[in-house]
Each structure stands twice: as C-alpha cells, then as structure tokens.
Amino acid sequence: MTILEQTIAAIRPADPVAVAEARAHQDRLTKPRGALGALEEVAVRLAGAAAVSPPPLPAPAALAIFAADHGVHAQGVSPWPQEVTLQMVGNFLAGGAVANAFATQVGASVTVVDVGVAADLDPAPGLRISKVAYGTADLSQGPAMTAEQVTAALEAGVVVARELVEQGARCLITGDMGIANTTASAALICAFTGQDAAVATGRGTGVDDETLERKVEVVRRALLANGLTGGPDGAASPGAQTAHAAQMPQMVHIEQKEYKEQSAQIEQTAQAASAMKTLAAVGGLEHAAIAGFILGGAAAGVPVILDGVIAGSAALAAAALAPAVVDHCVAGHRSAEPGHAVALSHLGLRPLVELELRLGEGTGGLLAYPLVCAAVRVMHEVATFDSAGVSDKEA
Ligand SMILES: O=C(O)c1ccc[n+]([C@@H]2O[C@H](COP(=O)([O-])O)[C@@H](O)[C@H]2O)c1
Ligand SMILES: Cc1cc2nc[nH]c2cc1C
C-alpha cells in the first residue's frame, strides 16, 4: 500500500458510542442543557473522532503553513506579484507575520512547508522543503498538475501531519500561503459542489470589480478547459459510472448486504479517483498538501482545525478521498471569501469564528483553537448536577 492508501485506510468515522456518551455527559454538567451552544457540538465531535468521552485535551497545537505558487497568476487574478509568496515565507520564518503573532498567543508551533514555491529556498529552522514543482501550470488552459505531482503533494502533507503528531502535537491547524490561490480554491469548490463560478469566486486579497469579473471568467474557463462541470463529489469523470456499471453483472448473486458494501466500495474508489483528477485539474500544490495534512491528522487520531477558503476547498478533496475525515475536522472560521461558506455547507461544518478575516496563513484556525480547547476542558473539569449537589431542572 502507498502512504496515501495506508492513511485513508486508517481513518475511522466518528464512534457512535463515544458520541452518545459525550452528549449524555454534556447534559449532566452544571449548566442548562445546550447552554454552551456550538461548543457542546465541538466537544461531542472530538469525542466521536477520538472514540472516547471525554476526548483528550487537544494540546499542544501545531500549525503548518503550506506555500506554493500558481500558473494562473499570469491571468491577472491577483493584485500582488507572485514573489510575495517567497517573501512571506521569509516573513513566517523570521516570526514577523500575523500567523506568528497568533501562534505565540495560543502557544502553537509553526512549521512552514515549501511544496511548490517558484524559487529555491535556503534551508532554515522551521522550514521543511518538500518541493514538488516550481508552481503549477495555468489551470485556465488545462490541468494545473500531473497525477504524480498531486500524489507527491498529498503525501508530503500526510508526512508533515504524521511527524508533527510524532513530535507531540495533539491538534493540527492548517495554514497556506500562495499568491493567486483563491482562484484555484474557487475552481475546486465549483468542481466539488457544482456551485456557479460567480457565487464561489471572491475578491481574494482584495481585487477591484474589473479583476473580479475576470477572475470569475478564469474560473469558468478552467472548469471548461478541464471538462469539469461540477457535481456533488467533484466527480466529473464519466469513467466513475462506467467502472461501477461494469461490476454489476457479477454481483447479482451476492447477498444483498455484501452487494451493498461492495457497491459502496466501488463508488468510493471511483469518487477518490475522480477527486485526484479534479485536484490535478484545478488545484494547487498547497491544496493537495493540505488535503494530505488533513487526512494525515485524522489517520493519526488528532483533530484538525481548518483555516479559510483554501483549507475549505482542500477539505472537499480530502472528504472525496475519505468521507470519514470530516468527522475529525473543526471549521476554525468562516472567511470573507464567498466560496468558503459554500465549501463548509457542503462539508456540513459550522465555523466557530466569523470575523470577516481573509488572510489565510492559519490565522482563523489559530483564533478558533482556544475555543476548541475550552470546549474539551468543560468535559473534563465541570461538575455534574450530582457531584456538585445542584438541583436539576424539574422534568
Ligand atoms: O483564507 C482565506 O480565506 C483567504 C482569503 C483571501 C486571501 N487569502 C490569502 O491571500 C492569498 C491569495 O489571494 P489572491 O488574491 O492572491 O488569490 C493567499 O496567500 C491566501 O493565503 C486567504
Ligand atoms: C502581504 C500578504 C500576506 C499574506 N498572507 C497570506 N496571504 C497573503 C497575501 C499577502 C499579499
């Protein structure tokens, strides 16, 4: 088995017993039932993911910022020069970015991963060089990446997640840096959800009206050029259905349950193959690496806090590869980029923080991290009605 196959095979869906225990425990704590709102669901979610209630405290946390460049920058979709990706990597390594300040605030470590910056980087403490390519090809003209590049970037993300967990991290936070990557994110979101480009495409770092119009057209062209009409799984490949249909005749005598299981397995395999194609067509190297990072965290048994629209679009790919991965994710925030809400609603994730952030780097995930810790701490430390001798509400 490849690293990616092993990782996908290791991801378990939420444990229903732990979920039920966590819900019941929440209801015994000295507070009106449901009074902690969305935080109660976060604690229950983490219990399901860890298959134990209460779930372990998600500390310490590690942020990984995946950096890469984009061929689609040539279409004039970002007001910023491409070299800002490289320059911001230098800023992260020097501790001068917003992500560094927020990481210090919440005690998270910061690792910068070069998966596709269009320049050679010198080795430095805190930098991991896992370069797959010097940026992607222009996704509006055809596939942004080869299948080999997608696999390499996904596996690079898995390896970073594994190593951070081996080094003691108990919560992973996604981060990204890549000028023009909101265009790739919008295209991925359209492909995976079927949403229209005009709805999913936003102003990124702050483009004017004219550039936004061009950006929407670039996303439309990218979907067309790559034969992606969009769909519930981003499964635009006709091969998906053909592979499934081809298996049907041999299955007529198989027991109904077994047939259903095998049928679901075949469908999942087709969906995964299609997700790889979609990533290659309109994704970025950091999107693929972040998808791998999310899968790697889930496989290693730690929760993953997703940052903004780049992470949201990468999570769509991860979920198409391994649907159970969503049970291990927490949506840190909802970015101002409109496609992010589309992605989160498709994933069924509720963002914890809504501050109209549109920075990336992991900033929204880092701000949400103390809320996730607080949600879990409640489960460990708050007294029950019984233990504190507090009268429960009359039935
Ligand atoms: O996280 C987000 O939702 C987000 C929204 C807008 C912009 N960004 C960041 O801005 C850069 C991409 O913006 P753009 O306009 O060049 O596509 C990239 O480095 C992202 O981290 C990030
Ligand atoms: C300055 C700058 C910082 C960023 N951080 C993440 N994306 C970014 C884009 C720009 C342009």
TrEMBL record:
Alphabetical keyword list: Cobalamin biosynthesis, Glycosyltransferase, Transferase
Pathway involvement of the protein, from the record: Nucleoside biosynthesis; alpha-ribazole biosynthesis; alpha-ribazole from 5,6-dimethylbenzimidazole: step 1/2
EC numbers on record: 2.4.2.21
Gene3D superfamilies, sorted: 1.10.1610.10, 3.40.50.10210
SUPFAM superfamilies found in the cross-reference section: Nicotinate mononucleotide:5,6-dimethylbenzimidazole phosphoribosyltransferase (CobT)
Catalytic activity: 5,6-dimethylbenzimidazole + nicotinate beta-D-ribonucleotide = alpha-ribazole 5'-phosphate + nicotinate + H(+)
Positions of the catalytic residues: 361 (proton acceptor)
GO molecular function: nicotinate-nucleotide-dimethylbenzimidazole phosphoribosyltransferase activity
InterPro entries: Nict_dMeBzImd_PRibTrfase (IPR003200), Nict_dMeBzImd_PRibTrfase_bact (IPR017846), Nict_dMeBzImd_PRibTrfase_N (IPR023195), Nict_dMeBzImd_PRibTrfase_sf (IPR036087)
Any one Pfam family match given in the protein's UniProt record, by short name: DBI_PRT
Secretion signal, residue range per the UniProt entry: none
Domain of life from the UniProt record: Bacteria
Function: Catalyzes the synthesis of alpha-ribazole-5'-phosphate from nicotinate mononucleotide (NAMN) and 5,6-dimethylbenzimidazole (DMB).
Family under the similarity heading: Belongs to the CobT family.
PANTHER family named in the record: NICOTINATE-NUCLEOTIDE--DIMETHYLBENZIMIDAZOLE PHOSPHORIBOSYLTRANSFERASE
Name of the protein in its database record: Nicotinate-nucleotide--dimethylbenzimidazole phosphoribosyltransferase
Source organism of this protein record: Streptosporangium lutulentum
